Amino acid sequence: MNKWEDNKAWFLVLPVFVIVAFSAIIPLMTVVNYSIQDIFGPGERVFVGLEWFKEVLGDPRLHEALMRQFLFSGLVLLIEIPLGIGIALLMPKKGWGASLSLVLMALPLLIPWNVIGTIWIVFTRPDIGLLGSFINGMGIPFDHTASPTQAWITLMLMEVWHWTPLVVLLAYAGLRAIPEAYFQAAKIDGASAWAVFKYIQLPKMRGVLTIALLLRFMDSFLIYAEPFVLTGGGPGNTTTFLSIYLVKIAVGQFDLGPAAAFSLIYFLIILLLSWLFYQVLQNAGKGDA
Which of 279, 281, 272, 269 shows the shortest CA–CA distance to 67? Predict the structure, then answer.
């Protein structure tokens, strides 16, 4: 079989590349076009260069939204990654208990993002919500629409409940892929549970945890539907993250130029931080090896 016949399989994925180019690259070029022009109407536009980028980068509201976004994503990772690993370690390894646990873990991931926000609105209502009325019944005033602290707590609870199962499933898959011979050797050597986790389970889970960390970081940094439905970015602007602020500029104010520049900056921030996360995790893995 010659080289040409070996490479014919690439023609099977060619339609995928065409679709990706049409659905991703072309819209991206449109955004780039809007970011360097001032649009007045159909056929009426003026080239402004980097003016919109300078305006967006100098906006203090963007700086505040960026700090809120970093805080939210940092808290999400600090809670969900250790919690997901802990739950995965406690789940049954085999039998009907393992199957039942996996099904229950996957249920929150099947619910659409906008529905998640609606569920938690009802769940936390201070008058009829199961959680809200319970907390108020204990004599603790609770209303996440009026208290910034309670709004953040509610958002974090909702995010942890919704996405920790993803970390659990990935960590569980990594644990089940470890050969049983490692655990038998550790048992013979009299290794403690902590030693088994530190020197066997955690290093062997590095690959799946890298995927979990990157997925959860990117998704939490792009979060929109859940906080928009639950809080609308309030009270005030206390839960206005970058995505909500971008929508306010693009849809609320209809400033297409600044919104396009902002979206490109947003994209570059996520791309850069994801690359840094990946490099740090890969270098850490080489160091352990």
Answer: 269
